[in-house]
Specification:
Blueprint: H1 33-62, H2 67-99, H3 108-129
């Protein structure tokens, strides 16, 4: 039986402390699957790179023949780890562009931009309609209709 915080247990134990596990809402949403897969790949590649670098360092200190091949493979793995991190970033950007991101227009800057946009649209509309104060008014240069290929 699940009990809510602040309520007495059903069997009468009033002095029982709340449980160790407290449900809290998620602060951030879960990453999309392709982004999560790329992140896991990047973490594994970085872990292998760090392991190779540590082996290269220790074998260099020990004077082992394994030092030179491990240094070379560490350099190659560093390039691979960089690719893995960039893959996470690119995958995230592509996912955001394809699926969109839910955005709440709570920012003051967004509101101001929206108001400025509305004012510019209203000004353009007034100019097109020939309202007083308009620079162009209703006088516009009309171009003749272009001929199509069949008319030429």
């Amino acid at each position: 039986m699940v009990e809510q915080h602040g309520t007495a247990p059903a069997d009468g134990y009033a002095n029982v402390s709340p449980g160790l596990w407290t449900e809290e809402p998620a602060v951030r949403y879960r990453m999309p699957d392709p982004v999560r897969k790329a992140a896991v790949r990047a973490v594994i590649i970085m872990a292998v790179t760090l392991l190779q670098a540590m082996i290269a360092f220790l074998s260099t200190l020990a004077g082992s023949w394994l030092a030179f091949p491990m240094v070379l493979s560490s350099v190659v793995s560093t390039v691979g780890a960089t690719w893995g991190v960039l893959d996470v970033w690119v995958t995230r950007q592509v996912w955001n562009q394809r699926h969109g991101v839910v955005s709440v227009p709570s920012s003051t800057a967004r509101r101001l931009r929206r108001e400025r946009r509305r004012a510019r649209r209203a000004a353009r509309k007034a100019v097109r309609a020939g309202a007083p104060g308009g620079v162009r008014g209703a006088a516009r240069i009309r171009r003749p209709a272009s001929k199509t290929l069949s008319e030429a």
